C-alpha cells in the first residue's frame, strides 16, 4: 500500500463537503472525529484492532496528483479555486489510535482525528475501509485460533478473498489475530510473516499415479513433506501410499521430521482417527495430520470435541471473508469543533431515535482498568481529554444506561492504562509500527487480559465500557437540549 | 491494478509445485485447467461474471522482479536453477474466457487456461481471487438492482468493503451488475463510471443549525441538491427545512431540477410516504426521495411492496460484501494434459466421494442454446472442443445426472452461441476489454435472456447446464476406471 496513491479512495461526498467547508466556513476550524464501532462482529465479546500501519501509509501519501485534479475537474462539481487549493493539500492534523493487536470494545474511539475540518472529513472513508477490514479479520482469526486450543492455524483464503488487498491485508490481519502462517506469498514478502503450503490435487493428478506423485514430492521437500491423501481414496490409497513413501525415506537413512498428511475432504473426525491408527501402527507416531475443507471456529471446536486427531488447521474462506459477519461496523463521527472565541472544543452529538446510535460527544481519551492482582480487564472508561484517573483514589464505575449499576474500586486494587496513543502530531507521524509478528505477540498478551468466559465462542461474557461522570453529564445535557 | 506487480499474489503451494514440475517432469507439458464454480451465490439461478479485465492486466504483468526472486530464495525452499528459471518466466499459453457481464452457470468453465503445466499452475490463485470477487459482487448487484424495479441503485459501500481493492473492484463489479453510480471516487477515476454523493451528518452538525447547513449546501450545488433530512428529526425538522430551502431557491428564480431529500434512518416506508405528502403539498412533486441505511435486495423488495415513495436507493455494506454470501466458490481444476506420443489431450478427472465435486474432464467448449423466437436461454451445453452443434439438426439435451430427462430441439427452433472466447494466444492478449459502462449494457441484455422466473429473489427457476453425449461418455468411462 505504501507505494499507491489512495487519495481518491474516498466517497464523493467527502469532497463535495470539503468544497463546502472551503467556501462556506472557516477552513481552518479544527474538528475532532472519532472512529468507533457499535457492536463486536460474530457476537464476540471483544474485537482486535488492526490496520493502523496501512492508515499511516495512507496519511503519509495523501496528496492530489495532477491526474486526480484533472479527474475531479472533469466531474463538473468543483470550482477552480478549490481545485487549486487541493494541489497543495496535505494532512496537518493529529491522530490518536489504539495500537494494532489491542483488544477494542464497542463505543470507544479506536482512532481519533483532530484536524482542520476538511482534512478530517477527507480521510473518513479510507480510515474506515482499512480499519474495518483488518479488525474484522483479526477478530475472526482470534476466534478460530481460540477454537484450535493451542494447535497451529494456517491462513489459506487468498483465492476466496474479496480481491487482492483482501487477501494481502486479510493475511496480515489473520496473523495478527494468531495464525501461524499464510499461504499468501505476497503477504509473506510484504510483511515478513511465515508462509506455508505443500501441493494440490493437480500435483497428484498430473502424475501417472498417486505413489509416484508422493515420491517426487518427498524427494524435493524431504524436510517439509506434507502429502495430500484424498485425491482418490484417503484410507485405501492415500494413507497407505504416504506410509510407503515415509518408509522409503526412513529406509534411505533419512531422519524424518516435520512430515505428515493433509486431509481435505470427507469426515475429518473419522478419517483423522483412522489415519492416526494406521500411521501409528506403521511406526510414524510423529507424522502430523493436518486438515482443511471449509473450516471455521465452530467446525474446529466440534472436531476437537469429537477427539479428531488433527493438530494443524488450514482455514480459508470462512476466515478471510469472516463469512458469518463479513463487515465490521466501524463509523466515523464528529465529536467536537474548536471554538476560537471560547478557546475550547465545543462538543457535538449525533441524535438518533435509536438510543444505541447516539454518539459520545467531546474530545475524549480511554482508560483501560485492570485487576491489580491478575491483570484481567475490569472495564474501559471513556473520559474527557482533561480528566485523570488516579489509582490512589477510589474509582466508581457505573453503567451508562442503567446508572444504578455501580462498581466501586478501592485504591490499590486496580491499575490503569491509557490506550489511545499519539500517532500523528501536526501532520507528522511520530509512531513506529511494530513488525507484524511483534503485533501478534502483543495480541496474545492482550487476549490474556480476558477471562476465559469472555473468549468462548457462544454467549461470551461482555466487557463493560463506561463513561466518566463528566462525560455522561455532558452527553445528557446535550441530549436534553434537543 | 495495471501498475502493480501481483506475481507473488499466489499460494505458496503453486510455487512449490512449480519447482516440482520443473525438476520432476517435462516442464513444457501442456495442461488444460478450468475455472468454474459449483453453485450460484445467494441461492440465485444465475451468476454474472466479472473481473476479466483485471485478469488480463495480471497476466500481462506477470514477471518475477529481482526482489521477488530474493524473497523466494530467503524462504529456503527453492533451488538456484529454479530461481534462475523464474527470472525469465513469462506466460506463453492460451486463455479462453466468458466475457464480463455474461450470465454464467454452475459447472461450466468461466476461464480456461491451456498452458505449460507450471505456468497454468502459477496463475490459479490470482485468477480465482479476481474472478471470484468481482463475479460475487456483480451477481449481488444484479439482484439488488432487480429488486429496485427500474429505480436507480447507487453503490455506497467503500467504507465497509474488505480493503481498498474490495471497494475499488467491488464498485466496478456493482456497476457491471447494474448500479447507476458509485460513491467511490477512485473507482470513478479508474473505470470512467459515474460517481455520486452529497453530504453526511457531519456537514449538518458542523453548522449552527440544520437550516443554515441546507442553505449553504444548496448555494454550492444548486443542480444536484440532495438534502439529508434525518440528523435531528426527519418530519419535524429535516423535511420542513428542506422545503424552506427549495422554496427560497424557487423564489430566487432558479429552475429546480435533480433535487430532493435523502432518508438514512428510521422507518423508511412510513417516513417516505409522509415526506412525499409534505413535499407534494408544498408544490415539490418533482423532488425525489432517496434512501440508504443497511439496505439489501430483500429490504428494497419489501419497501416496494409496502408502497414506499422512494425512487433512488443507496446500498452499502450488504452489496459491497455480498453479506449473506461473501464468497463465490470458484475453483480451478486440471481437466487434461497433452500427451506428445498420442498427439492429443488426455482427459483428467478429480474423483470425490461427493458426486457434486467430480469434475468434467477434457478440453471443452460451451454452447449457449436459445429459443429462436424470444431469445430466452434454453440451456448451456458443455461439449468437447472438437464438437460442433449444427442448428439445422435436431439436438437432444439430457440431464447429466437424471439421464432419462430429455429435451428434443427441432431444427429451426433454437439458436446457439459459443460463449468462451479467446483472450490470450501464445501469451499475447488478443482481446479488447470493453468499457465498464458497455459491459453494464451488455449485462442488461444478458439478463433479458432469462425468464422472470429465473430472476426472482427466492426459489428462482434454475437453468440447465448439460453435457454432450461424448463428454458424458468420457466422464463415465473415467469414473468407472477408478
From TrEMBL, chains A, B:
A GO cellular component entry from the record:
cytosol
Q: What is its EC number?
A: 6.3.4.21
Sequence ranges assigned to domain Nicotinate phosphoribosyltransferase C-terminal in this UniProt record: 363-474
Q: How is it modified after translation?
A: Transiently phosphorylated on a His residue during the reaction cycle. Phosphorylation strongly increases the affinity for substrates and increases the rate of nicotinate D-ribonucleotide production. Dephosphorylation regenerates the low-affinity form of the enzyme, leading to product release.
* Domain called Nicotinate/nicotinamide phosphoribosyltransferase: residue spans: 153-276
Give any GO molecular function from the UniProt entry.
Answer: nicotinate phosphoribosyltransferase activity
Q: What are the protein's UniProt keywords?
A: Glycosyltransferase, Ligase, Phosphoprotein, Pyridine nucleotide biosynthesis, Transferase
Domain Nicotinate phosphoribosyltransferase N-terminal intervals: 8-132
Source species, domain of life: Bacteria
User: Biological process GO terms, please?
Assistant: NAD+ biosynthetic process via the salvage pathway
Q: What class of enzyme is it?
A: ligase
Write out the function statement from the record.
Answer: Catalyzes the first step in the biosynthesis of NAD from nicotinic acid, the ATP-dependent synthesis of beta-nicotinate D-ribonucleotide from nicotinate and 5-phospho-D-ribose 1-phosphate.
Q: Which family does it belong to?
A: Belongs to the NAPRTase family.
- Spell out the protein name for this chain: Nicotinate phosphoribosyltransferase
Phylogenetic lineage: Bacteria, Bacillati, Bacillota, Clostridia, Lachnospirales
